Amino acid sequence: ASGQDMVSILQLVQNLMHGEEEEETSQAYRLQNVGEQGHMALLGHSLAAYISVLDRERLRKLTTRILSDTTLWLCRLFRYENGSAYYHEDDRQGLLKICRLVVHTRYEDYAVEGFNVLCTKQPVIYISSAARTGLGQALCNQLGLPLSCMCRVPCNTMFGSQHQMDVALLDRVIKDDVESGKLPLLLVANAGTPGAGHTDKLGRLKELCEQYNMWLHVEGVNLATLALGYVSSSVLAATKCDSMTLTLGSWLGLPAVPAVTLYRHEDPSLTLAAGLTSSQPVEKLRALPLWLSLQYLGHDGIVERIKHASQLSQRLLENLKNLDFIKTSVEDELSSPVVVFKFFQEYSNRDQASHAAQASTLQHPIISNERHIYDTLNQWLGEQLAQLVPASGVDVVELEDEGTCVRFSPLMTSAVLGTEVQDVDQLVDCLKMKIPVLTSTLQLREEFEQEVRRTVGLLYIEDLSWPGLGVVRYNCHSDGKNDGKQEKELEKINAELLKKLNELESDLAFSLGPEFGGQKNCVYIGMVTEDLDVSELVETIAATGREIEENSRLLENMTEVVRKGIQEAQLQLQKANEERLLEEGLLRQIPVVGSVLNWFSPFQASPKGRTFNLTAGSLESTESTYVSKVQGAGTTPPPTPTSSLAKQRLPGQKIFKRSLRSSDAFSETSSVSHCDDLDQRPPTLCPGPLETEKTEEQQEVAQATETDTEDIHSDKLPHDSAKAEEQENQR
């Protein structure tokens, strides 16, 4: 109630930002390293708050100077002559204000009659199908227009880039809208699509907009290249558009700076009505962070940052051209600020013919499954590259035609992450390491599926969204159990199977699969290399599963078997006691008389007992134990199921690995192993040239071993005899 002091409040803010325990806070959650240019941008916000308390006249002069300077610098920097600027926090807010400006311009009575004038001629806003997701719906919601006012224009399908707007189709759509009584209002084009970074044909689109009296708005990351000395003609055409949106914060690595929308319009009253300008001086202070940052960087510093990002993308593109199984999707091979690539295995002529024949037989499943698998592998590739080289800023993007791809857009990330040339080289090296893993996994997936389907007890689970060798499940025998009990037993066996497989010394990754959307009671196998022995892997999984199932069944039946064995042993021992009484006679059972009689005439009777064999589940007599003074081994237990493909491995060779005979290391190891086999083979009847005589040292070791063996055997009998007597006394 009485309030808190400033120290307590600042301490609360610090705890909310960093956590109460600084030591437990990981590095990932801490503030990013803000450079001096970032401090200038952040300083602008606090200065704007202090400046706002100045007197009105001084505030008006200062804000006018800041706004005019910043607008002039940006228009000169990005070659946009005679333009005005609107500064906004949300990058979509500028386009929204432009739409309101166009509505006020095309509908003269809109300020008076409002939405009633829209009923006479429905406005239409055209956006590309490659635009940002949800952009059209957001505009309609903010403008209060129905979704029917938004028209998505498809991209090229036959000629040109598949990420560029189809101009011919757009022309036909506009004609149809005009004939139906609609009013074409605005066209949103891209100078660098959000996904692939391609630029629309802005020159032809500008001509089309002039023909139908439409407003042309351009946005995209490629607009940053307008500040460079050399600009491609496709991007340079953006300087003739009616408005454009610039996101300088990500391009220059400036935190908390506003986005800027440059536009050309001659009527200040309409721009005021649309909200592009304001009579409040405080609103003009939004440009202060940019005003400070642009002065700190200077023209050369701004151009150098954008040029550095373009060089990074060009360096990556040149390296990707030399890599097999990597397919790039760029607009311009010479200069492309955004590089999009994906893993794709081309077919040879023979494979392509067989694949085409197979696809013609089953068109939709083959094509859809193949694309789904490639999307999964490229998703894994993008996540691995982002994890291994976080400074590169690569991410995964979904494209309509190419599917899942990896995107490198240094204009959006390099200034913030500090990406350098060595980061691009490291990215290429990591990509070279991952390509063999991808190709091996893709080739061995089909072989793994066939091996699992041929193996009894294993069930292959098709999960196209799993980036790995495949998914397998061990199916236990039902034996008439209900579904609930069988499901629990299946879960238990597969969980134990996963544990056993992870205990093996192999390079494979076994897991339960993804946290969400995965199959239950399955073993997911991760990415593999080319030296994987698939048949050995599958048979090991099946043998381990059978072993676990047999052990679980033995434990389940153990209680019942032991209970019945104890009951049967009690009956047999009771019968044996009755027979012993008949043999000894009645007099020997009297306490005093029996002792005297036993002293004069001892009665020799072999002790009778029973042993329970857990392996065979049967009762056996102990007579053989007392005769031989050694407890019998009983029935030999069944051998543990193991893989029939178990083989002698080379030194250092892990399980599930095929030996590569073409390598030099294998040749040397195999020659040594062959010599060892010659030394260890059994002696022949006739002495040959390969036989060797024992040295004196070997003879002494052999004699010492024989002596130790005799001592062990000689000590064993008394020990066993004493143990037997002890057991007899206990009985």
UniProtKB/TrEMBL annotation:
It comes from the Eukaryota. GO terms for biological process: carboxylic acid metabolic process. Keywords: Coiled coil, Decarboxylase, Lyase, Pyridoxal phosphate. The keyword Iron does not apply. Residues 559-586 form a coiled coil. Gene3D superfamilies: Type I PLP-dependent aspartate aminotransferase-like (Major domain). Its cofactor is pyridoxal 5'-phosphate. Residues 448-553 form the PDXDC1-like third domain. InterPro entries: GrpII_AminoAcid_Decarb, PDXDC1-like_2nd, PDXDC1-like_3rd, PyrdxlP-dep_de-COase, PyrdxlP-dep_Trfase, PyrdxlP-dep_Trfase_major. GO terms for molecular function: carboxy-lyase activity; pyridoxal phosphate binding. The keyword Disulfide bond does not apply. Residues 627-731 are annotated as: Disordered. Belongs to the group II decarboxylase family. This is Pyridoxal-dependent decarboxylase domain-containing protein 1. It comes from Semnornis frantzii. The gene is Pdxdc1.
